[in-house]
């Protein structure tokens, strides 16, 4: 599809987007629940040497292990401290259990607690209520979990505070050059995390013509007004996946456990796969055709729906 | 925008829509209502601001209608739009979060600080039955609180429509919100521009009063004062309202509202 | 498309669905924001003579005028008391302004207030906060609008109470026989209103094969677990519209004003178009081909997206 | 379900998954986790409950995977599913509203009332660094509060995993919730069934204690008691746990987990 990326819009390259929007000490959310995890953007943040970030993510995943190991992260705001299916995040554990090589601040919620924090942030509310914390030790662990009195006479209910990241970074299947972003498959809390943020960077598998987006407006998860930078970044979610584009690299997730367990191996991995790789194009090439074949997927197309078009009176008169 | 000027009367829809359209110059996103705002927004896109993003309460963002919309939920707004979001997203994330620059609202009554009544004429307290059941809040109270600024077009200019005191405050200005709770002042400027058949009134300060900014051709300042339910302030640099161009009127009649739904 | 409607599922006819789920005195939400308004279901409720309903709808529209005039409604819970573009609802106004022929209780919010009430109901929360009521007379008019103290030190914030209808009724473009409902175009607050309810009736333009739904799972707004009855009811939203199927009958909306203004005309209209019409099929026939042509729409198809399919190991080995 | 019985050991994944699958008979919707629950759910669909709706924390409802899922966000759960909803809908409307009948959870520690610890081993108060950083709450605290009932499968049965007192209460049982606030008792029953390598323990009462309901073949009741960190109650009608059928084991090995991801 031919797209004139020189036209006005928010299209940029990843290095520029990160340089323009991500500063040391910022609160940055990287969202994508097991799907569309913005690894390419995370690696660019590592390469640019950002420090003291408050890193927000419902499930930290390997991305947290990598960014913590690279020294980008001062504080982790999260709900789950393992890598989906495949074992511990040892860099995170070393920091938390032994302050090795340095301590890591942790602010801990449940998954729904994080979702609620993003919902409050996205709607500019001070807090969001949820039902599940009564009797848990979580509110004692994290004093930012509080209660409010129900003015309708019910029991007190727990609330979590709004989370408003300075920057939210997500990955999606496609966007137009204005920043209207469409995704499908598992949507996680990306819409909330993006609307909650002051600035939003979206990496996409493909930048498409306006008409592709406008042919299916219900598919748009982030309208252009919520997006500050769009970057074409094919395979930018690897080793996680993009529904319909490429599958999760489960083998890599398994390989991560021994890498993560050994700090020297982990630093060597960062050198080889992040610092010494200039950008995602080089990464894709380095991953190699054989590995990409192992995560290739067959086609399974959705149907089309009809949005209809009004008969123009001129036409009707003709 | 230049060109010969039209002599349509100041109370006409064409005049009011053109004056309203000018408020959209340089703005990014407008929350557009039905009726006269539909005309104003369309005219602005065709003349002053081709990149204006049209947002509708129904959840449509970036509409590009192929025909004139007959309501905020018209199918022509959906087909070819950039996005259609559910109402919790529209009200919560688009509007309350602060993505709307200008909101167009209507009203039955407007007070000096720009609070609006769209609920009742007559008494309503203590279970009284009102004289007139107006449409109610709809989304107006949210637009007033959360849009960057608000533009209101009234079809009347008299002390009933511009009273000293509203029968009911549906959509409070920042002044009224501050009086209720000084810590809960909303994000928006509130009403910035009020367009009537006689004049354009503006608020220069978020906590200020409306003042007469321009008077329509053929209307005297004295008439504007006498038609307003309070002792209305007048801007020191009050001028005559600029007339629509012939081209604006032509666009409205021959390209925008060709079926004369809103133009009478 | 051939669908075996004798198979197990929730498919039924409209008379049975209303008889089974809607009882006198219940709280019933009819949602659809200017789009997909469930007129056919409302007319069936009128025909079955339900009384004392608490009728919930963000914008009452003509449907409220008709159901109030038919004597079904004791209480109206709403935010807007006019018919979208085209003028007053005079039956509602007569009741409110003059108790003519009888009073009508009104519980009044704003549009977002109603959305928030449904959101709280759908998530089993006691209330939902919103930012816009400070300084408005709405909280004095409606004492169910209250405030809570922000435990994070901000100003008090207004809240609205959860709305949990006994029944929510919506219309959609399509569903499968299990009750997985898909819609596109303006989605209003249907998802929230349905999840908030104890029981849900959905009328649809078309019941489709399971595979149509499963080819595009992100299009499903109501999963089957949230739906109790699905009714095939083509053109069930007229005189409102169904995106891509038929357009709004704007002429009818304009015709309504004089009908609504004259109680005798209104009762005659109800006799002719509701009481003496046995079902929606008869209504569609009575509306007539010419009028249906006036609301016909041209085709404007969405594209397809690719959901992908994993290579099965067996296939890979072959 | 009849057929010859298998002699796989009680601590084997095949044994535990089959016992867990039986808990899904007659249920409508299960909130399935990764690992052993994946096997149990798949086996239940193939043997006891073909209409079971599979709901995943990732937002997938009515999954019909063409291959075994390697996680709760696996692409095979999405393709061909009945619905994929965003997480606010999944957690708020599907789970918290009460549409899930059975939730499968894992845990590092379970106490006598069925509260779970998935957060820390060791001390954590006053800023102490814990001995072991466990994965944390994830969605477990929401599943415990809002699912109709919960099934937990443990791979250990010893006083460390079944202590008298949890190091951290991540997901409280209704007993713990009631103790914190008698008015805020959650909707769900909490843990109903705990499956370990030695026994099946159940709670009969929403506010009751776990009691030994069945003991696996070759395990003595005395061994179960000695392996539990409190003086565990025993059901008056305690029996021996029914073994998996040969067919269950065959399905697990030859049709469900053909790559032996979870079966070792």
Description:
Chains B, D: Belongs to the 3-oxoacid CoA-transferase subunit B family. Chains B, D: It holds the Pfam family CoA_trans. Chains B, D: Keywords: Transferase. Chains B, D: One of its GO terms (molecular function) is CoA-transferase activity. The complex is a heterotetramer, with two copies of chain A (318 residues) and two copies of chain B (264 residues). Chain A is an alpha/beta fold and 318 residues long. Chain A has helices at residues 14-21, 39-47, 61-69, 90-98, 111-122, 138-141, 190-196, 210-214, 250-261, 263-275, 280-287, 289-294, 313-317; strands spanning 11-12, 27-30, 53-57, 73-78, 105-108, 127-130, 146-148, 157-161, 167-175, 181-182, 199-207, 220-222, 229-232, 297-298, 309-310. In chain A, α1 (14-21) crosses α2, α5 (111-122) crosses α7 (190-196) and α9 (250-261) packs across α10 (263-275). Mean pLDDT of chain A is 94; it is low at 1-7 and 313-318. Chain B has 264 residues and is α/β, with parallel strands linked by helices. Chain B has one domain: Glutaconate Coenzyme A-transferase. Helices cover 25% and strands 19% of the residues of chain B. Chain B is built from eight helices and 14 strands. In chain B, the strands form four sheets. An eight-stranded mixed sheet of chain B has the order 2-1-5-10-11-12-13-14, sandwiched between helices. In chain B, strands 3-4 form a two-stranded antiparallel ribbon. In chain B, strands 6-7 form a two-stranded antiparallel sheet. Chains in contact: A-B, A-C, A-D, B-C, C-D. At the A-D interface, α4, α5 and α6 of A face α4, β9, α5 and α6 of D.
